[in-house]
Design a protein that fits this description.
12 helices; globular
Length: 463
């Protein structure tokens, strides 16, 4: 029950966050005084469908459905350049119980700085420094085998953008140009060292812990970190004669060849775009990614072979995506996992979505529903419903706010725990009381059983 319960919660959080990202006007430049603000008045409702789960007795599914139907998150959100590395997000609202604001709070994010303030904290604020977030969220996984690292990846989309930029920007700069061209071996050597430094020198902690959160549950984190710190060895293997990289380019196609190996191909036809990345290494690994995109469908596969055998594979796809100018969409997202690297079988993931908005450009109203399909019953088992009125405001809509606490919560230790208990526990208990009174017996039983299995009760001093 331990694994099932936490994976349910992790999946629920991840799919609940998808609508929040949907209304953001994504930009990847740094914030400046002219960057507009996207304002949203929204409601996010949580769903668990009891009839979508098998009658296995693992959880009190009907009680969970009843309880989650009473809860929703509502409020106003202002975002600037979200989810860029240097973004800004401010939320004012709270958790509603039976349509009544029960736990109000403010959330304010400045790049890697986060602040949370609420009457449930006695009106005080708590500071979170995201540089330490992944390390903090890995601790429950290591000590209690709770998959909190997946929750961390869902809660910190800026880290995904930053990791992508760290690798994509130097590669794009090295390969820049038009038409057929050759990138010298010396230039590739310099690029390899730059990519190595992302792990070894520039920001070891952030890159390493991001990779660890992403891959530790698969047992692939150490291998991935080692490979990402050895681009020079890969170059030596691919280009022993130091010929460099040849880029052949036409109007709709592009091919990159290092030595005798084609490492990248792209073909952009009128109605379909395909691309493939292929990197074999001297240790017998072969890494490849293939993507295909049409107006309403995308498919992707990542494959790792080891000595010619399937080591790890992810096959994913989405259909029913909105085409240009289309204001409504209904479709599916699927993912399957296989390979000898897996400790245990991972069930396929199937998500259905329904999306609509009233206009192509801001301002508009939008709605989205997302449902996770249970593989045994083939019915929705988890989901969210999201509605929002979205508009664009000038950058002056976001103002600086003072906060009293500058100690990083993610540096939590025994002394901090005692301090927080003394400062916040009475107010938290009082704020949670209305919610606790609405918790069905089955939900309470499941939660206590889970906390007992994982050792949370012992950690809290409750035996």
């Amino acid at each position: 029950m331990k694994s099932t319960f936490m994976r349910i919660l992790a999946l629920l959080l991840c799919i609940c966050l998808l609508p929040v990202y949907a209304f953001a006007e994504t930009r990847f430049e740094d914030i400046n005084d002219g960057t507009p603000v996207t304002h949203s008045d929204f409601e996010l409702s949580f769903r668990l469908y009891a009839d979508g789960w098998p009658d296995d007795g693992k959880l009190h599914y009907q009680d969970w459905e009843t309880f989650l139907n009473k809860l929703s998150l509502r409020g106003s959100m202002d975002s600037q350049s979200f989810p860029a590395v240097f973004d800004r997000v401010y939320f004012d609202g709270g958790m509603y119980l039976n349509d009544k604001l029960t736990i109000p709070f403010e959330y304010d994010g400045y790049s890697s700085f986060r602040y949370l303030r609420s009457p449930a904290l006695g009106g005080a604020s708590v500071h979170f420094q995201m540089f330490n977030f992944f390390q903090f969220m890995l601790k429950p996984y290591y000590y209690m085998y709770m998959p909190t690292q997946y929750i961390a990846l869902a809660l910190y989309p800026e880290a995904w953008i930053e990791m992508w930029q760290k690798y994509a920007q130097p590669i794009s700069a090295a390969a820049a140009g038009e038409g057929d061209r050759v990138i010298s071996h010396d230039a590739l050597t310099a690029l390899s060292q730059q990519l190595n430094d992302i792990i070894l020198v520039d920001d070891y902690s952030k890159a390493y812990y991001f990779i660890t959160c992403l891959l530790t549950d698969l047992g692939m984190d150490w291998t991935a970190s080692d490979k990402l710190a050895a681009w020079d060895l890969l170059l030596e293997y691919l280009d022993p004669e130091q010929k460099g990289m040849t880029i052949a380019q036409t109007e709709h196609a592009e091919t990159w060849t290092v030595g005798e190996t084609v490492i990248y191909e792209k073909n952009a036809a009128a109605d379909e775009t395909t691309c493939r990345l292929y990197l074999p290494d001297p240790d017998g690994y072969e890494f490849s990614v293939e993507l295909r995109r049409t107006a309403s469908e995308v498919t992707a596969e990542m494959l790792i072979l080891l000595d010619g055998e399937e080591y790890f594979r992810i096959s994913a796809g989405a259909d029913g995506l909105p085409e240009e100018g289309q204001l409504t969409a209904q479709g599916n997202v699927r993912a399957e996992f296989s390979g000898s690297a897996l400790y245990e079988e991972i069930a396929p993931i199937h998500v259905q979505f329904d999306y609509s908005r009233t206009a192509d450009a801001l301002p508009y109203d939008m709605s989205m529903s997302i449902s996770l399909i249970n593989n045994e019953t083939q019915k929705p088992c988890l989901g969210v419903a999201y509605t929002a009125a979205v508009e664009e405001l000038p950058y002056t809509a976001l103002v600086e706010r003072p906060y009293d606490d500058q100690e990083d919560f993610f540096h939590l230790n025994e002394s901090f725990i005692e301090e927080y208990k003394e400062r916040f526990l009475p107010a938290l208990v009082l704020a949670a009381a209305p919610v606790a009174l609405e918790v069905p017996a089955g939900v309470l039983s499941d939660a206590i059983a889970y906390m007992d299995e994982t050792g949370i009760l012992a950690f809290m001093g409750i035996e």
